[in-house]
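FAQ: What does the model actually see?

It sees only this:
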Amino acid sequence: MEHKVLSIFRDIGIIAFLILFPHFVPLPFYSYAIVCLLLIWFVLRREGKTFRDVGLVKSGLTITAVLIGIFSALIWVSFMQFIYIPTIKYFFVVPDYTEYNFIRGSISKLIMIIAAAWLIGGFYEEIVFRGYIQSLLDKRFSKSSFTLLGIIVTSVLFGLYHRQQDIFGVIAAVLGGLFWGIIYKKFGNNLWIPILSHAIFDTITLVLIYIDKFGNLY
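And it is asked to produce this:
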């Protein structure tokens, strides 16, 4: 019993570190990702596991996975562009999203940020949230009826991780977490699919910002 309690506190501590460290110890050039991935690698290794056990399997990177990633990304872009953003703008006074306005008029900055989106938004964030945290919570909520609870908790944490954005950005991240969490479970915990979907979604969104069409229907 004591070992189980200590294990739960350890898991909570690791999750808290993964969410808080990037914000409170802002290392340059996204190097916080290296620290967090090394932590996950170390924890998995102590349990006799590798990144393969959270869905990062070479054989999972197939043409089918790529197509699902592309299709699901297009679905999520459409939802955000034509449903979520117009809805919140209709009911609330929403401040303009300016975080990435610096890429407008600079193709080199666009390419640089897209590369970061693939490495951090797609690869890193999906390993941390869907691969590690959601898999960990699935193990804690071991009954099949609680699978959705693991996805929900992970998605809320994913939203809080994006706390530097406004409340509407946090809500969008929660919804995105639910979307990619369900995809992760739907396709047998193949982590490549949410990685590709997330990265492609970020890429399209950045291009829309670059051409000043993000959140605009015309």
